[in-house]
Amino acid sequence: MTTVTSDLKKSAKKVPVRGMMDNVMEQFNSAADHINLHPNIRKILSITNNEILVNFPVKMDNGEVEIFTGYRVQHNNALGPYKGGLRYHPTVDLDAARALAMWMTWKTSLAGLPYGGGKGGIKIDPKKYSESELERITRRFTFALADNIGPEHDIPAPDVNTNSQTMAWIADTYMSTRPPAERTANQHVVTGKPDASGGLEGRDRATGYGVYLTIKFWAEKTNVSLNGKKFIVQGFGNVGYWASYFLEKDGAKLVAVQDASGSIENQNGIGVDELFAHCQNNSGRIADFAGSKTVDGNKFFAIDCDICIPAALGNQITKENAPDIKAKLIAEGANGPTNVEGEKILLDRGITIIPDILCNSGGVVGSYFEWLQNRNGEIWQLDEVMVKLDKKMKESFNKVYDYSKTQKVDMRTAAFCIAIQRIEKAYIQRGIFP
Predict the structure, then answer these.
(1) Dihedral sign, CA of 130, 136, 140, 142?
(2) Rounded CA gap, 319 and 296, in Å?
(3) Could you give the CA distance from residue 168 to residue 96 in angstroms, rounded to a whole number?
(4) Mean pLDDT on 96-122
(5) Which residues lie closer than 8 Å to 220 by C-beta, 6 or more apart?
(6) pLDDT bracket for residue 5 (50, 70, 90)
(7) What is the DSSP secondary-structure string of 27-47?
(8) Helix %, strand %, coil % for the chain, to 5?
(9) Of 213, 239, 299, nearest in space to 263 by CA
(10) Of the listed 83, 107, 119, 399, which one is catalytic?
(11) What's the whole-model pTM score?
(12) Taking residues 410-429, what's their average pLDDT?
């Protein structure tokens, strides 16, 4: 499961989560202005198609009943079924889900996938509940959403504090609500499932591997060697770990990490696998890792490094900390980790940002592969998956990088323009009913 730092929680309190919607709308409008987006299509893409809120009761281990609130926002499906994660976090609300769903629309479009964008989750701190309680909460949430998701309509996936086990519970519950003859045909209602339950081999590393690939492609384009480059990672869940794993294989050096238990640094290098093993034996926490020193979490982004990978929550790089960032490259492993004010400061300082809808899109590309695998009754091998992922990510990166250079815009604007133009073309060709 993805972990976040106590400092991140403080940051989330300082910057309301609803600010994410302000960010995504400013990004959208900036790109729409640049491509002179048709005003009617701008109206359509500025709003969500559907916003679903469900309140549902669940019996706890002690026999008491608690009421939970779940959300699913479906932004746009012009290119195909809604696609996006479900997160379990206290900050989940409609505003956050709207922003994240909109980002998913741009992400799937940019990747050239036959999907739209959706997002949601439950307003909950999962650490407060037992495994059996989380299973019942997940199954009851799925039952409440059952008419609003489906393998050809809306396909959830893991996100913050959800994982392959969560997806297995959702798939099983959803299939149980279908007529017997249709149950196995609905296995691809979610992606990110365990291998034995129809999951894709390599899906666990797809997002982190995609983050690494975009950094690698940037280095190749700019004639930079990753060997010896220092990088820091915020969040050491699947995304942070796998990005670090592959960067280390290329000779880069992990020098600082931040998670829910604090922030650690070692300018001589932190062994990625050693830290991972420590976390496995320490309830997923990086705290007390031997050979590192504890540092002030509020100054994490100011640590000396070449590459910074924010891979936790949104709104982490802001106008308050952007001036202190030492990295020359920001690779956004999380969704919306850099707000608009922070980004302007970074760009003015000549710092390159690989935007989230490109940088962390390896996850949704992997999800697409899993969806195809289930849909076609196939089983793909790991080496095949990694080759396909590499090819797909390179295509997307090259499109964004080349557009950025030819149009003389930053990479986020380039990514948004490409994504929005693809959707605009679909609307123009199909027309608007009636």
Answers:
(1) positive
(2) 18
(3) 25
(4) 97
(5) none
(6) very low
(7) HHHHHHHHHT--HHHHHHHTS
(8) 50, 15, 35
(9) 299
(10) 119
(11) 0.92
(12) 97
- 304 to 91, 140, 202, 235, 340: CA distances (angstroms): 30, 46, 32, 18, 23
CA dist 278 to 31, 44, 264, 287, Å? 43, 48, 13, 9
Please give the average per-residue pLDDT across 414-424, as a whole number: 98
Which of 322, 352, 342 is closest to 27 using CA atoms?
342
Contact yes or no for 310/330 (Cβ under 8 A) = yes
Closest-CA residue to 359 (of 329, 326, 323): 329
**What is the tens place of the pLDDT at every residue in 353-384?**
999 999 999 999 999 999 999 999 999 999 99
Sequence-ordered list of residues with C-beta below 8 angstroms from that of 255, at least 6 positions apart, any chain: 230, 231, 232, 265, 266, 267, 268, 269, 270, 303, 304, 305
Per-residue confidence (pLDDT) for residue 11, from 0 to 100? 40
| Contact of 235 with 2, CB cutoff 8 Å | yes
**Tell me, what's the pLDDT at 291?**
82
* Sequence-distant (≥ 6) Cβ neighbours of residue 283 within 8 angstroms: none
Q: Answer yes or no: is pLDDT of 200 > 60.
A: yes
The CA distance from 247 to 255, in Å, is 12
Provide the pLDDT for residue 6.
44
- Residues 23-52 have a mean pLDDT of 96
Average of pLDDT values for 127-147? 96
How far apart are alpha carbons 6 and 260 in whole angstroms? 5
**Which amino acid is residue 106, in one-letter code?**
W
Q: What is the DSSP letter of 369?
A: H
Q: Retrieve residue 142's tokens.
A: 């799925």
SS3 category, 197: helix
What is the edge-to-edge ordering of all strands in the sheet holding 154-158?
A: 50-59, 65-76, 117-122, 82-88, 154-158
119 is catalytic: yes
Alpha carbon distance 334, 359 (integer Å): 9
| Locus of tokens 């302000």 | 22
**Percent of the chain having pLDDT more than 90?**
89
What confidence category does residue 10 fall into, taking pLDDT thresholds of 50, 70 and 90?
very low
Which tokens in the block code for residue 20?
């994410």
The dihedral over CA atoms of 315, 319, 320, 326, expressed in degrees to the nearest 10, equals: 90
